Amino acid sequence: xxxxxxxxxxxxxxxxxxxxxxxxxxxxxxxxxxxxxxxxxxxxxxxxxxxxxxxxxxxxxxxxxxxxxxxxxxxxxxxxxxxxxxxxxxxxxxxxxxxxxxxxxxxxxxxxxxxxxxxxxxxxxxxxxxxxxxxxxxxxxxxxxxxxxxxxxxxxxxxxxxxxxxxxxxxxxxxxxxxxxxxxxxxxxxxxxxxxxxxxxxxxxxxxxxxxxxxxxxxxxxxxxxxxxxxxxxxxxxxxxxxxxxxxxxxxxxxxxxxxxxxxxxxxxxxxxxxxxxxxxxxxxxxxxxxxxxxxxxxxxxxxxxxxxxxxxxxxxxxxxxxxxxxxxxxxxxxxxxxxxxxxxxxxxxxxxxxxxxxxxxxxxxxxxxxxxxxxxxxxxxxxxxxxxxxxxxxxxxxxxxxxxxxxxxxxxxxxxxx
Length: 419
Prior knowledge:
Structural class: alpha/beta
Number of domains: 2
Order of helices and strands: EHEHHEEHEEHEHEHEHEHHHHHHHHH
CATH superfamily of the largest domain: Aldolase class I
Mean pLDDT: 95
Strand content: 5-15%
Oligomer: single chain
Strand order of the largest sheet: 1-2-3-4-7-8-9-10
Radius of gyration: 22 Å
Helix content: 40-55%
């Protein structure tokens, strides 16, 4: 199973809420290339965010193409239809060449018993003891286990196949990258479950090049990982090993790799991920989500004057609409209202206090993860004042460019891909 359009070994998903920072983001990839490692940019924006902002996939494509031309980037780049479903994919077919097919809501949906039985009969190789190179313990799969996992995941994989074939019918097999997303669900997948899912993907003849499983712990927006690092590392290592095994077993694309939907800023995970990647010589696709928007906002605060007043007013409105703003992101934000500073207090802050509270530097005692998360989901407020917001960020272009590039290169690319 192969795909003509190939995603290289290392790639990074970069969110850009308002489509103004593609050039500064691409500068970070250029710095990586100068350091000897190619990190391929994939500009991603979900249907949810397009809907909130009233933007279109063509806007994301246009911003990416302009940055690539301006900076003379001659390596691959992609535009991701992020977390699309059958009901939403049509609007992304013209502008996107990377499709994150999200079927998490199909997990556990019932499927005809005959289909389950046929899958079980067709995969006798999965029964018994399975030794995965790089995994210490053998997998034991009996008939009940195989049937139970098929019951849980086969409907979701079938739906992914339906979406994939729709995309293929419109774009042609060789013209896009396919990712399978099963991460937005309650429970993490075990190594056995991931292997069985990949067997089902092969049956559906979906040439996935990345897969995003669910891992233990919390991946909240814009803040660090919350969970047990040892457990995550074990799961990550096992998933990498399972993918390598499944490529050989089922003829999946040779470049198939994990996609980590990080929600951004999972700094504590990067050393552990890098160690595993080096052990297996494995690639990864890292989705860094929307912290570019936070760099815009914090740059305005850093600039002082009217920019600082604007972000203070934005925070005050976000504070009064906290529940509404967090609603679409309930599964990936943990904000304790008791730890949010009152707008009256924030109004008295100097520029440096606002920046220190919002920038993700955990060693800084002024950093406030609750404050940062609320700012992260408050982009809708800026969208309601879009002309004024754009005027502010255009006026601070040099400062914002520097902060966006520094954030992506120094805090994400360096620790995961270069160190």
